[in-house]
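Weekend entry, working from home. Most of the wet-lab plans are on hold until the incubator is repaired, so I used the time to fold the two sequences that have been sitting in the queue since the last round of cloning. Logging both here for the record. First:
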Amino acid sequence: MSSRKRWIRAAAVGAASALLLAACGGDDGDGGGSTPTATNTGPVTLKINYWGEFGFKELKAKWEADHPNIKLSLNPGDYAKTQDSLAQYLVAGSGAPDVTAIDEGYIVKFRNMSDYFVNVLDMPGGKDREKDYLPWKWKQSMSADGKVNIGLGTDIGGQAMCYRRDLFKKAGLPTERDEVGALWPTWDAFIEEGKKYVKATGGKKKFIDDMVNVFNPVLSQQPVGYFDTSENLQLDGGPKVAWDTATKTYSEGISANLTAWSAEWTAGFANGDFAVLACPAWMLGHIQTSAPKTTGKWDIATIPGGGGNWGGSFLSIPKQGKNIQQAWEFVNWVTQPPQQLEIFKTVGNLPSQPAIWTDQSFQDYKKEFFNNAPTGVIFAKTAEGLQPQYLGKKNNEVRDAIQKVLTKVQQGKTDPVKGWEEAKKEAEAAAQK
């Protein structure tokens, strides 16, 4: 999900190492054992840790009206810190929230620590939820032995391209979404359109926001990402393709070089500093929040290369909590179709339950902010038949290492060729930590 900042803090390394060491103890460790059954019976407040836009704020009043004895304490935070802190809390045996969001980039790591989480399969109605989900989404949160599911899925990151209609019109480019999508069947064609746009603005405006936001969607479209299923690094495959495509946007001068999730990048949505960006479904909410006065100026077209999944999250319940039953009641409730449909309509997150995609209100829904784009139809189409990559236990550490060097290229501190060699060394080191 999400808004979803994809940078990993250095603290993750120490926390992850401690987490893996703790894993060696199996179910006899401090966080292990069978699913706890003790729970408070009086009024409780559930602490929920997450980042970005999950739609919780919009649903809080409805939940508390229907569940007067279970209040919600929403605790949004930084993407990486939310999950780094969770690792530390699990090892310490205390401090974890009642409910925590986990991103797909961390799910492999945490599912290998399944003894620290409540098993969905042991909870009332938990086993029955499997039929609701995309098979690969359900499998992502399952332990290797298939005996534990550590959390219920929320969204997936079906991809498209969000673009400014008004800026395209000024540059003499088509503005209708079907015509725009037809401009760029491939990433090379996309870059050529970018050159036309920059030329039409007299070089005063750039086409895209940031190289990293080209690298990630291109990588997601490759058969294999950073790791194969045996946890072997595969840098010269998909990552090299993504690197070459992203750095070409820099060499051709079409990137605004605004570091993703920086204050400058966020301001760029309203200022028109760029005209288009890769747009997983969860990005819609961030655009609306960043540039509320640009309603109707944005639209959504297909992504070059077609498909790919970038992002998606889960809701899990740490075993150390004292409100297990109430936490499960919330997680089970918020991931039901009516709530997931409401979240889709309010913040844009694409549900990971395909039955929702056939709901007529989902099919008919149009997003006014994005020129009444039929967001349900657009993003569901990108998700059909999707088979996401295996991400690996060290996915985030490797991604962070490569993206840091990619940013150095963007800042002119190294060139794409030397940068790739540096990125490989940094990624290999990160994978060994």
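Second, folded right after the first finished:
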Amino acid sequence: MVEKNGDCGLSIFSYQRACLARIIMGCRRLPQRVITLALVLSVLPLMGQKFRFVPFQNPSLEGSPSRSLTPMHWFHCGAEGESPPDTQPSFFGHQPPAAHGRTYVGMVARENGTRESIGQQLDQRLEAGHCYEGGLYVARSDEYESASQLHSDTIKSYTTPLRLELYGGLTFCDDLELLAASPTVRSTDWHWYSFWIRAKNPLRTIVFQSGYDKDSSSYYNGNLLIDNIAPLVEVDCQTKTPFVEVDTILSPVIIEDWAEFLSGKGDKIMADKTLFVDEKGHYHYENVAIYKLLKALEADTSKKIVILIRSKVRRKQKLQLQERLRRLFYYHPSVIVRVSKRGMSRVKWVHKGADFEFGIGRR
């Protein structure tokens, strides 16, 4: 996203590009060196601009459910010799379904003082003295059992509530400064935790870490679940107003309307990402059309979307593409990605592209 120019309503980039076009079109006989200088001058101000929001890679924490394995793009930042966080659900007892998509991360803190955490290098750094708003879903599992380093022959319970701590740093897994800490997460239901941060240093990495209750005088075994991390959006430090223009998405589309829209846009619809706010006030940086479709499927559970891969590539490549598409749609159970039409006789095919074919069926 870019800032708006207050005089003409265009983005700064569009405004400069429009002005440059007028110069060139109106002065076709200008020497080449003058036109080149105009191009350079138009680009220089853009080089100094800063992005006003910082997205995460794989913010929904999607991956294959696995013990001691973090989702794609997230690094294990816990103590050496201790197990990494888990991609849940499915392990260490009954775990709740994800708040968003198919999977989430489960972290523990231990009675030996070690804590699990995940981290990521940011595409854009957080500027010192600037304020940012973020948020994510947090919860606690009432059943989380595992052995520990202190008692390797005994299964221990990790159900005591923990809090979430957010650290920023300069390199991978660096905890240079504590940016935010949640209240102790006691609920076993997912709830949204919003935070505002103001970095003291320019930061390039973020770490989400499990932490003990601030009033506890000793270490203990506990667990913390996190899911669907919102982008960090720069806001005014006084008013908390974002510096970027953000659309609000209030209602899902009708599934048939989505299919019609798709037929007009073609396969490129999947590539676009936009910063927007949902009806709960949570920031997202993702494909709006896909977001709306998944909301529509949640509202109408009788229907499903079928995506048929038509690309003329080898089967191995088709299977790889199939997995990428499933991840793109957050492994939603009502979005079926197929490499053949076998068993799809009841599907109404509504759009045929060069690489994909889209249909609507009933669950």
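Plan for Monday: verify the second prediction. DSSP finds five helices and 22 strands in the chain.
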